[in-house]
Amino acid sequence: xxxxxxxxxxxxxxxxxxxxxxxxxxxxxxxxxxxxxxxxxxxxxxxxxxxxxxxxxxxxxxxxxxxxxxxxxxxxxxxxxxxxxxxxxxxxxxxxxxxxxxxxxxxxxxxxxxxxxxxxxxxxxxxxxxxxxxxxxxxxxxxxxxxxxxxxxxxxxxxxxxxxxxxxxxxxxxxxxxxxxxxxxxxxxxxxxxxxxxxxxxxxxxxxxxxxxxxxxxxxxxxxxxxxxxxxxxxxxxxxxxxxxxxxxxxxxxxxxxxxxxxxxxxxxxxxxxxxxxxx
Length: 280
Hints:
8-stranded antiparallel sheet; single chain; 4-stranded antiparallel sheet; alpha+beta; 2 domains; Umud Fragment, subunit A; about 280 residues
């Protein structure tokens, strides 16, 4: 619709048509901004597993089919909105204005969904994430942890210390939950199922392990009776609390774990309800 002559501004119908055009143009501008924000949110959700592939294993968004289906639906809806609601001709009719108004309200909601998913994608991949011991169906951390326990993992800002329970990547697709026993540069030995550690200052001490069962069978594999293991400057020696069944750093196929393969520290248990609390 072209702008009327000066006389046309005194025509009520033409004035209303112009106001409608201005309203629709404003709403379309807002709609375009919301679509751009949603687009960047989807880019964040999609890009993280591509740029940081190992982080995807801790990302509940990409590992949940329902969430991904929702994101797919949002993307398809965005394409529909962009192709049907941004044309200039929509401002010429009341129906066109209703269409733009309806899509503006829905896009506001989809923006909230995309923003929420993007936030949790970043949070789960880099800061904190939720995992389950049931993934490896293992008793290797009993009695401290059991299959089915839901755990919160902290991924950044960690200074790993002796006694921390950590998530370690063993190979391209396997993650173990184990306890740090010895730190980089230390020497660890075993005799009569008692661990002895020599730290980087040359101080030797027997390791106290109150979390262990009475029978724990520590002296096997790389830690056979009387054997010593000297750690590299970036390696950690990890053991499961249930030493009789645990596959850990005593296994020559696993060995000490370098720093870059530690992916976080277990800090809290959320399930089962009776065991909710900090994990030590």
